[in-house]
Every structure is written in structure tokens, then in C-alpha cells.
Design goal:
The chain is of the alpha/beta class. It has two domains: about 1-215, P-loop containing nucleotide triphosphate hydrolases (Rossmann fold, 3-Layer(aba) Sandwich), CATH 3.40.50.300; about 220-300, Alpha-Beta Plaits. About 30% of the residues lie in helices and about 30% in strands. It is built from ten helices and 14 strands. The protein has helices at about 40-45, 70, 90-100, 105-115, 130-145, 160-175, 190-195, 210-215, 260-270, 280-290; strands spanning about 1-10, 15-25, 30-35, 55-60, 65, 75-80, 150, 180-185, 195-200, 205-210, 220-225, 240-250, 250-255, 275-280. The strands form three sheets. It has a six-stranded mixed β-sheet with strand order 6-7-8-3-9-10, with helices on both faces. Helix 4 (about 105-115) packs antiparallel against helix 5 (about 130-145). The radius of gyration is 23 Å and the shape is elongated.
């Protein structure tokens, strides 16, 4: 288990992170999402032991990560910037990694990944496209069989076939050897298909951290109509936690943060003519979680 407790980080006058708490279960795939500049990359650099937090602790199975080679040897970090590999060919980088991580390095896995991604091992990484460099980084990463995998926008610029292949490798490693993955991404639809838990960051703080199924269980889109009494009964929604509301003729469209049980009880007591509960996608959930009430970008059209 990875535990992050009361993490804070400041760069000059800028408070990048404030009182961050996260709990990541062993073997899970954990999604880290947030607006641009929210602090996701800073969190990942602290989790990787690259940055020292100004306050708080980060532990892997109870062991700190910063300046701890033993803990760091068990994790792999694939950042968005991969220029550190540019001076090597892919085969040269593999020899380097196999020497750095001799205990877990697996040549068969490396060759399988190179073949799957159709890469040329003798090609210098500096001459590869950005997408090819990311695939090369994944070949090196999966071959060293880390216990913890940290990914910062890892799939940007990759075609759908390659993206699916990488996700399959992540899922297989999680199932076969209990690898824990933390992935930062703006692609919420993709995270929805693979993640067990989600953490949303806004302005350096945690907005919500929940299991994915639980997160989607208490925010819903409603279509409600009370017929001719629709206008006179507008105040009836005051007992619901309404994030947004739009009216169309005699039908009201609402986004609410309530459980299904609370909504069923509300419908039984108020007797609407129409009451449809529509599940939201993860993308829609976080538009409201991160945008809040009245955010122009989250209004129903």
C-alpha cells in the first residue's frame, strides 16, 4: 500500500500542494486527474522520490521513498519528458537498465514488447518520434517488472491500438504479480475503463478520492416533470443537493449529488409524472466535481 499523508510543497511564493492525503491499495490501478496546473506532476515527482515534500510523508508498505534506494528500486516512473534516454539506442538502454535492475530484469519481456510495438532496437532514441520514445520507455519499464508503476500522461500522442496494448500490459501485470499503478491523465473515458480508484486534484488539494463505482453512485442526471404544477413546485428541489438545473417546457433537467436511495425516497414522496435517473460518465462527474455549481462549462445544453 502507498500512503500519502499531509503532503505540502511550495515553489517560491507558489503553493503547489497543500495537505494532500492519498491511499493507494496494492495491485490497484489508481487514476490521478485534475485541471492543468493542479499539481498532478508534482505529486508524481514526490511519489517517485524525485522531489522532497516540504511537509508530510510518503511511504510504500510503511517505508519512505525519498533518498531510499531500496524503495526506489521497486518502482518505475515514466514522465511526460523522456529526453534522458536520447543518447542511447533502444538496445543500449536495455543493457543499461538490465545492469541497474539485475534482479527483476526480464529479456523475454523486453523482446516481446519491442516486437509488439514494432520498434527497431538499433535506432537511437533521439531519432524516434515522441510516440515511439514513449513506447520505448514502456518496453524498458515493463522488462524490469516494477512493483509500482507511476505514469505522467503516458499515452498522449499514441494511436488507439498502441494505447490498448499498453493498458493490457498494465492490467496483466496488476493481475499476475499485483503491480500497483498510478496514472495521471486527462483522458477520463479511458481511465473509466481501467481504474479501480480515482483521485481528483484542484489547485493543489484533493477534491475527492473514491473507488470508481462509489464515485459514480452519488451524482446523477435527472429528468423530472410534475406536469401543470412544474413551475409552482420549483422549491420542491431544495432538499436535494442540486449542482445544476435547466428547464425545458414542463421538464426539469438536474444534476444532483444524492444516492439512488435518496432519490427513490424523494420520488415516492413528491409523486412526479416523470422521474428518470440517468448515469453520468466519469468525464461528466468530474466536470461537476472540479467545476462546481454554476460553472459555465458544465451546464446542460
Amino acid at each position: 500500500m502507498i500512503e500519502v499523508r499531509s503532503i505540502a510543497k511550495t515553489f517560491g511564493a507558489h503553493h503547489a500542494l497543500s495537505n494532500i492525503d492519498m491511499t493507494i491499495a496494492t495491485g490497484s490501478i489508481y487514476g490521478l486527474v485534475g485541471t492543468n496546473g493542479s499539481g498532478k506532476t508534482t505529486i508524481l515527482n514526490i511519489l517517485a522520490g524525485v522531489l522532497r515534500p516540504d511537509a508530510g510523508t510518503v511511504t510504500y508498505d510503511g517505508t519512505p521513498v525519498y533518498e531510499n534506494p531500496g524503495t526506489k528500486s521497486r518502482l518505475a516512473f515514466v514522465p511526460d519528458d523522456l529526453t534522458f534516454l536520447n543518447g542511447f539506442t533502444l538496445h543500449e538502454a536495455a543493457r543499461l537498465f538490465s545492469g541497474l535492475y539485475p534482479t527483476n530484469w526480464n529479456d523475454d519481456v523486453f523482446r516481446m514488447c519491442v516486437s509488439q510495438f514494432s520498434l527497431r532496437g538499433g535506432m537511437q532514441i533521439a531519432h524516434m518520434s515522441k510516440g515511439m520514445r514513449k513506447q520505448a520507455a514502456f518496453c524498458l519499464t515493463f522488462a524490469r517488472k516494477p512493483a509500482y508503476l507511476l505514469l505522467d500522461e503516458p499515452l498522449d500522442g499514441l494511436d488507439p491500438i498502441v494505447r490498448r496494448g499498453i493498458w493490457e500490459l498494465i492490467v496483466d501485470a496488476s493481475a499476475d504479480r499485483n503491480m500497483t499503478t498510478i496514472v495521471s491523465s486527462h483522458n477520463l473515458r479511458e481511465l473509466e475503463g481501467y481504474c479501480d480508484s480515482i483521485c481528483a486534484i484542484k489547485q493543489g488539494g484533493v477534491v475527492v478520492e473514491r473507488d470508481l463505482d462509489e464515485l459514480k453512485s452519488d451524482i446523477h442526471k435527472l429528468q423530472v416533470s410534475y406536469g401543470a404544477n412544474a413551475r409552482t413546485g420549483a422549491g420542491i428541489y431544495e432538499e436535494l443537493d442540486v449542482l445544476d438545473r435547466r428547464d425545458s417546457a414542463s421538464v426539469d433537467y438536474l444534476i444532483v449529488r444524492n444516492t439512488v436511495e435518496e432519490l427513490e425516497d424523494f420520488a415516492r414522496r413528491t409523486h412526479p409524472l416523470l422521474f428518470d435517473v440517468i448515469p453520468l460518465t466519469l468525464e461528466e462527474v468530474f466536470m461537476y466535481q472540479l467545476g462546481g455549481k454554476g460553472n459555465e462549462h458544465t451546464r446542460i445544453r
